Amino acid sequence: MQVEVTPEETAVLIRWKKRTDNYVLVRMKSEAILYASRGVDVGIIAEMVERSEKTVREWLAGWQASRMCSVLTGHAGNQNAAKLTRTQKQDLKAVLAQPPSRSGIDAEFWDVPALRDVVKILFDVEYESDSSYQLLLRFCGLSFKLPDPFDKHRDEQAITRRMTEVKAQVNQLLEAGCEVYAVDEVRLEHEAETRRMWLPKGQRTKFYVDRQKVSQSFFGALSLTSKKMRLYPIEGNQNTEQIIGALERLQRETKPRRSLLCLTTRGSTTPKP
């Protein structure tokens, strides 16, 4: 399929083909049209530009219809028309069979951003839509779907059963005249953020952010008899030694009472007087 190209058009197409700042699609179309103007077979042109014969015929038909305008199409920016050949797809399939780090891609697994990078690096081809990369993943035997959702709900039946046991145990202790406490540890954090901006004349604005974080741990004991809370700050690290110290302090403060019982909802812990 031979096309007619004037000397002026030939000069422009040669410049477009040589310019590296042009889109890849523009350079490929220019090269294909120049070859066709010399009577080169479409199959050879497709092999030279690494595109299918059908695509090359469409380029040449567009040239005959709108001349130079067909080279600078609206698809040049997004390059959706610049598709990979079968050979390139097979090469890409071999690349995706290896971890991304083998190809110099900083990613833990293959996803659309990582695939976009490797296609650009290996074949100098870009697609505008993510769906094109998702189809490439499917062609290469990879799934572009998100993992199946994981049910993070707790075992509601086990929780209900344990709470029933705790309530029965607490009621027995309260009826026996014991004072029951529910205890827990908590850690509060307060973060203050200060933003400062410096605007020196004739220079770029400088922006500073200072963050200060303060934290404090507490041991709390709620009396199920009087409904009053006893709160004890924990100094330093929140560890077993600190918790034992808070329990001893709670025991000293409530010593005149008949009995003291610290209760937890954990299944492996039994209330002790």
Mean pLDDT: 78
Number of separate domains: 3
* DSSP strand content: 15-25%
**Residue windows where pLDDT falls under 50 for at least 5 positions:** 74-82, 265-273
What is the string of SSEs from the N terminus onward?
HHHHHHHHHEEEHE
The counted number of beta strands is 4
Fraction of residues in helix:
40-55%
Largest sheet: 4 strands, mixed
- The helix/strand class is alpha+beta
Q: In which order are the strands of the major sheet placed?
A: 3-2-1-4
Quaternary structure of the protein:
single chain
The N- and C-terminal alpha carbons lie at a distance of 98 Å
SS element count, helices:
10
Radius of gyration: 36 Å
Textual characterization of the structure:
InterPro entries: Transpos_IS630-like. This protein has a four-stranded mixed sheet with strand order 3-2-1-4. With 273 residues, the chain is an alpha+beta fold. It folds into three domains: 7-77; 86-139, no CATH class; 156-189 and 218-263, no CATH class. Mean pLDDT is 78; it is low at 74-82 and 265-273. The protein is built from ten helices and four strands, in the order H-H-H-H-H-H-H-H-H-E-E-E-H-E. Helix 3 (42-49) packs across helix 4.
